[in-house]
Amino acid sequence: MERLVIYDAGHLDCSELYQFGNKHFVVGERSEPLSARTADPTATMVAIFVSSRIDRAVLARMPKLRLIICLSTGTDHVDMPSCIAQGITVCNVPAYGEQTVAEYTMALMLALSRRLTEAAAQVQTGKLDHAQLVGRDLASQTLTIVGTGRIGRHVARLARAFGMTVLGVDPYPNEIAATEIGYEYVGLHDGLARGDIISLHAPGGRDNQHLINRQSLALLKPTALLINTARGDLIDTTALLHALHTRKLGGAALDVVEGEALLAGSVETEVLADGRVKQAILREIAEHDALLKLPNVIMTGHNAYNTVEAQGRIVAGGVENIKAFLAGQPLNTVR
Hints:
single chain; alpha/beta; Rossmann fold; 2 domains; 7-stranded parallel beta sheet
């Protein structure tokens, strides 16, 4: 009999997934992310959130695994070549969050441009100084969107409604969408140099790791704002901190960062798995702490997806992927 194990079970309301599963197969859950330590060797299917990591060590401990359901759009947390080599089907939920994440992107953009966190902090301390809270209108600003997939294009629509000029950066330009929405495609260097605000919506993974680094940050205007609701590894955190400290960047709003699992206190998990704290983990903790102390930085913990409506679409998409797989006609397969 098929056995589905849901990892990080507390992240989403998976009641619909349980209701379907309990009628057709055995369902189990783990409150922790999937790792070599938490791998269930009896599972034939797993449902995972982005905090889970599937690599060769995990796959070696799950010999019966046939299906991985990513309750997300991105799949860079899954070792795809190893899954393909072992005949394991990987599915995602590609369209749940184009509006949800785009709205969150605009919320971060507004909060950073209008210095909302600083304004709220002043009220709490009772020391109001409006001269320290001068913000910027979004209208007439140039927004560069790096990655014009579903989410990036929806950000472009919202930005145009705000009266912004929009530039798109993408190795696979969608000229029809650009004409319909009203934005222009440019190269990465040109887009970074011209943008007042840079918003990242590119996939993570090896090809795009540290797309924003010391060299690319040097292209930005010193007043530019950087928004990331995509993947943490798109930005070299060390280079970002240097740009912020040297005032070569106006500010950053980050829903994702390198080592973001550590924000949830998973250092203990790392120690249990490895027997020691790696130097890289200590560096990431220090970088998080440095970012949190900067007044021109907003950090949230991978929360852009988190609405009732989006959660419903994610889980419904997961159910449909399982149904299709069991019927021998997999949907939303990642290759």
